[in-house]
Amino acid sequence: MLTKGPAKKVTIFINEDTQHHMMALHDSIMTFLMHKGVSGATATRAYSGFGAHQLMHTPKVEVLAQHLPIRIEFIETAEKVEEVLPTLYEMVSDGLIEVQDTTVVRFAHKSAKPEPKLPHALKPGPATLLRVFMGEADKWHGEPLYDAVVNKLRMMDIAGATVYRGILGYGAKGHAHKRSVFHPMRDLPIMLSVIDSPEKIAAAAEAIEEMLEDGLIVTSDVEMVRLVRGKTATEAPNAAGTTR
Amino acid sequence: MLPEQPAKLLRIHLKESDRYQGKPLYEAIVDKCREMKIAGATVFRGLEGYGETAEMHKSHLIRHDQPILITIVDTAESLARLVPAVEEMMDTGLIAISEVRMVRVQKAATPNERSG
């Protein structure tokens, strides 16, 4: 099963008309990969190209049009690639196989039917609560800072984050954050709260510190009462916390 | 990673209709914090809640009486100074203090006046 993190990317270059056991080679490679349970593979037909034979395959010349290159790509874990590579080596009698290191940033798949709702399981345990104080007008590369922070946390697989808008406040900047008819550009106080395991919060705090220009980060130990639905229990925690 | 310092987090729960010398209590408390040079204070308005008097605090058509939460983070000493003053001003409400670790992020070039 492919997950976020380091992975291998395999690219295979072959001819469209190469045969393998009475079948087009690209078809049998795709069938083989699917049979082996590879997370996904894409075969694309190239516009033109040449290979070891030093002959340009192009659709412009009818005789050469049947030799067009096919490129098959797939990304998998190192173990899976190790597993399928010997067979691919055997199959590709005429062509090229390339393997490179890559990083999976996101691997999400929507299942066709919604997953059945399993009963909630209670998962108590120690956790850390992180609060970040900032202003609503704070920006990070042009977008609202709180928005950027939430997106970042989401990418980091942090269990959850909630943004609160205050109605009044003051802090490091010294000026009052208050709604007023004279200041249409609002700069109300914003507080973001996140609950997750201590290690993940430490990583999150570091990332937020990078993005924060001026503000306060506060952490405290909490007792977490987690409510998780069946399958996700083994994955990232979905937190609902009680503060101590 | 900037160094973490031990600090205290103070939460004051009250309602929007609470008043102190004619102005909203939460405003009065924030003014008091400023006067006492507390590092910062943030006021949040809740949607709904109930408290000591067991009456629902929620938004009515003409009368806003939602729960208010004031959050303050500062050193133990500063908060020890503040708590008695706030207690004085409050009628019914709740004050809760918890231990926290804080990291001050201040990358802006201009240093701002700040205490605590």
Please characterize this protein's 3D structure.
Chain A has helices spanning 25-35, 78-91, 145-155, 198-211; strands spanning 5-15, 19-20, 23-24, 41-45, 69-76, 95-104, 120-135, 139-140, 143-144, 161-170, 176-178, 189-196, 214-229, 241-242. Chain A is of the alpha+beta class and 244 residues long. In chain A, the strands form four sheets. In chain A, strands 11-10-12-7-13-14 form a six-stranded antiparallel beta sheet, with helices on one face. In chain A, helix 3 packs antiparallel against helix 4. The longest helix of chain A has 14 residues, at 78-91. Residues 232-244 of chain A have low confidence and may be disordered. Chain B is 22% helix and 41% strand. Chain B has a four-stranded antiparallel beta sheet, with helices on one face. In chain B, a hairpin with a 2-residue loop joins strand 2 and strand 3. Residues 110-116 of chain B have low confidence and may be disordered.
Topology:
The complex is a heterodimer of chains A (244) and B (116).
Chain A: E1 5-15, E2 19-20, E3 23-24, H1 25-35, E4 41-45, E5 69-76, H2 78-91, E6 95-104, E7 120-135, E8 139-140, E9 143-144, H3 145-155, E10 161-170, E11 176-178, E12 189-196, H4 198-211, E13 214-229, E14 241-242
Chain B: E1 5-15, E2 19-20, E3 23-24, H1 25-35, E4 41-45, E5 48-50, E6 56-58, E7 67-74, H2 76-89, E8 94-106
Antiparallel strand pairs in B: 1-7, 1-8, 2-3, 4-7, 5-6
Helix pairs in contact in B: 1-2
